[in-house]
Amino acid sequence: MGLVSAKQMMKKAFKEKWAVPHINTNNLEWSRAILESAQELNSPIIIATSEGAIRYMGGMKTVVGIVKGLIEELNITVPVALHLDHGTFEGAKKAIKEGYTSIMYDGSHEIFEKNLQNSKKIIELAKEKKQSIEVEIGTIGGEEDGMIGNGDLADLKEISKMSKLGPDMIAAGIGNFHGPYPKDWKTLSFKTLENLKKVTGRAIVLHGGSGIPKEQIEKAISMGVSKINVNTDLQQANAKAIKKFVISGKIDKDKNFDPRKLYADGFQALKEVVKYKIRQFGSENKA
Predict the structure, then answer these.
(1) Mean pLDDT, rounded, for 10-20
(2) Could you tell me which of 124, 159, 167, 193 has the fewest CB atoms within 10 Å of its CB?
(3) What is the DSSP letter of 51?
(4) Catalytic site residue 265?
(5) Percent over 90 (pLDDT), the chain
(6) How far is CA 81 from CA 17, 99, 114, 171, in A?
(7) What pLDDT is stored for residue 149 in this prediction?
(8) What is the CATH number of the domain that holds 260?
């Protein structure tokens, strides 16, 4: 199976009350770990890149080539969507052109009318190519590719207007954060989430899925969250595994300077996290 839109997997998840794992990738090893884990647990998966990761990986054509190539060579049969995460207006237009199958336009840092106007254009362009589309209202807290958000709660009137444009997914600020959560952080705003579901009647995306307690994840899914984004948990697990390998002195033995050996423990750590998230979000055997 080649790349697909996220539209159908999102509809199924929303209806059946589970969430599609959205896992950010940063290179070849990450992409392979994500795809193999999804295949082994028979889970649909959204593999995503921020624009910063795209630059790091060599450009959109490179990313599309890596993911498509791995799907073919590894015989991946579960549904896989390649998603642009927090795309700028120009970045979203380019991703539509270059072969991404799911697009997020993030205009949350613009004034609302500008966000609405740009979202409308991106939705129209994406739907022409049958790509799924995600938009955002209310900034997510923390830092993403140098963009700082305050963690604002989404405005329901703005959500209602945006929802009428027909996006497949809406990301909204409900007290969630990118990156490690602040030490004094306590909970998501479930009241905001409840109102969002009433206003939109469609899949809600939870950004900042790393570090949220299990019981809050489960409650959010039961209330309409159908896609959960994860990046930091993988970064931390990968770094911890490689650090342990180096500090233990294994790097100086035999030919362990070979990147295939140096990165091996980090690769396995990535797979463990992805599989944990698949099971936690309820998407195992949902392909």
Answers:
(1) 96
(2) 124
(3) H
(4) no
(5) 75
(6) 19, 11, 28, 17
(7) 43
(8) 3.20.20.70
Cβ–Cβ under 8 Å, residues 274 and 40: no
CB under 8 Å to 281, separation ≥6 — which residues? 18, 19, 20, 21, 217, 221, 228
CA distance 160 to 215: 28
The answer as to whether 177 is a domain residue is yes
Residue 26 φ then ψ, to 5°: -130, -10
Tokens 């979203």 locate to: 92
Q: Does 287 reside within a domain?
A: no
pLDDT band with cut points at 50, 70 and 90 for residue 229:
very high
How many C-beta atoms lie closer than 10 Å to residue 230's C-beta? 26
245-270 burial code (b ≥16 CB/10 A, e <16): beeeeeeeeeebeeeeebbbbbbebb
Range picked from 80-84, 135-139, 175-179 for highest mean pLDDT: 80-84
Given a contact cutoff of 8 angstroms between Cβ atoms, the answer to whether 39 and 73 are in contact is: no
Q: Is residue 2 part of a domain?
A: no
Q: Which two tokens stand for residue 237?
A: 């697990």
The number of domains in the chain is: 1
Distance CA 147, CA 95 (A): 20
* b/e per residue 196-218 (b: at least 16 CB within 10 A): beebbebbbbbbbbbbbeeebbb
Is the distance from CB of 33 to CB of 274 less than 8 angstroms?
yes
Catalytic residue (one of 85, 106, 168, 265)? 85
pLDDT band at 178 (very low <50, low <70, confident <90, very high): low
Average per-residue pLDDT for the chain: 91
